[in-house]
Amino acid sequence: MKKPGHHILVCNSYRVAGDAKGYCNKNGAAGFIPYIMEECIDRGLDVAVSSTACLNVCSQGPVMVIHPNNFWYGQLTEEKIDEILDALEEGKAVEEYLISD
To answer: 49 in helix, strand or coil?
Structure first.
């Protein structure tokens, strides 16, 4: 199996116990997954996209992480995702949307 160049994780707030549809999920994270996948295909990006359990940064949600860069982005919107993917094509981060160093 060929490994993808990047792995995008989208918090979907799944929890072992408690509210199964937490902050990120309630704020549109599930809809971002197919959107990101389609955008990556359209751009020819070598990316795998996965939904995750709670990433424990609910105050910043919806949250997306891009590996291997370890870019953590918060308060996602489709417009922000477009900018983030534009930057990813150039191997850069969108500094203003990062929620961690």
So the answer is: strand
CATH assignment, 6-97 = 3.40.30.10
Question: CB–CB of 24/60 below 8 Å?
Answer: no
pLDDT at 17: 67
Work out the burial of residue 45: count CB atoms within 10 Å of its CB; fewer than 13 is exposed, 13-18 middle, 19 or more buried. middle
Domains of the chain by residue range? 6-97
Collapse the DSSP code of 52 into the 3-class scheme (helix H, G, I; strand E, B; otherwise coil) and give the result. strand
How far separated are the first and last CA of the chain, in Å rounded? 31
Point out the residues of the chain with pLDDT beneath 70. Answer: 1, 15-21, 101
Cβ-defined contacts of 15-19 (< 8 Å, 24+): 15/53, 15/54, 16/53
Who contacts 29 (Cβ-Cβ below 8 Å, separation ≥6)?
10, 11, 12, 13, 51, 61, 62, 63, 76
